[in-house]
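This part of the workshop introduces the protein records we will be handling. A record pairs a protein's sequence with a compact description of its fold. Comparing a sequence with its tokens is the quickest way to learn the format. To make this concrete, we reproduce a full record directly below:
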Amino acid sequence: MPTQNMYLFSYRGRGVVNQPVEGLLRAPNIEWAKHKLRKKGIRIYSVKRYWHIPLTKKHKILNADISLFTRQLTTLLRVGIPIRKSFYILEGSHKKNIMKIMIAEISDDILIGNSLAKSLRKHPQQFDDIFCNMIEAGESSGNLTTVLERLASYQEQKKKTAQQLKKAITYPCIILVTAILVMAIMLTQVIPKFAKTYAEFDASLPLFTLSVIELSQFLQQFWIHILAGCCLGTASLVAVKKKSAIFSNFVDRLKLKLPIVGKLTVNIILARFTQTLATTLSSGLPILDALKCTASTMDNPLYARAIYSIRQDIAHGISLYRAMGNQSLFPTPLQQMVNLGEESGSLSQILHKAADMYDEDVNATLSTIIPLIEPILIMVIGLLVGGLLIAMYLPIFQLGHII
């Protein structure tokens, strides 16, 4: 197929047994779309460009879709269904048109003689290097079903961890945004009315009340400047982080040293490192390729660079254990587990156990933090809102002195 931009086309026609067919397909132009339909034996009634806005989940291929696809393909191959037939079943079972299109394209590539790995590489947004390299290793060794099983488990574990983090972050963010909105409304709408009323008394007010009124007046006058300053400051920090390696390293290291959050972040990174490396090694990838794939999954650049350094050391003949010892980011217990795995010839199994250990640490930390977040946030919001209310009603308590 020509290497051009791909577009969606909708079509209607009749199939090889004269049944009505319609659907969507991707092609670089309408002529190529018609060519693909004719190759399938479809008598074309109409083909036209399909316009859609890929903003909803219906028009996007999500990680959850790929995870489900992997698990379903694993199940079909496990029971002995040929891969071509498996893709035909998957195409018919999916409700998402965008998934049907992708599965049909992979199926067509396999039909003309391409390997599964080569077919998947044509969809890099959905199937990354780890996925494709593992599939290629599985096809080469004849263990494709086993590799798919490991990939499915790997994706499901990543999804589980992501959901836990989302759950831990979402609620505090909602509470924080609500608190900011409540404070902004009180300072810009409620307190000015109190201030206007107290101004008519022409009497001295408590210092606390005066401070809150001055803060309210400041926000009313300069809120647009404050908002613009926050946006500009954030954009500047992001730009500096991208351009300055020193500042970027400082921020990345700071994330790892934050109280509670830093330890949680490290455990999440180590869990992903051990899980990814274990999965790729057990699937038959050479250790240098496995480390390259693992580095690409690291969200923290410090760990990504450390893994590439480990890879270079191993390429020069150093063991994984000693190469990890040259990097300060990997804790001693993990290094000892790797040493044990190398000496016993069971490195992938040991790494899987290490991944389980770090996952348990993440789960334990989240289980401790999440129940504490709600009461702490409620208490903080209560103090802030209560403080504003006290500041406004304090003159009423001293009404006799004011009048």
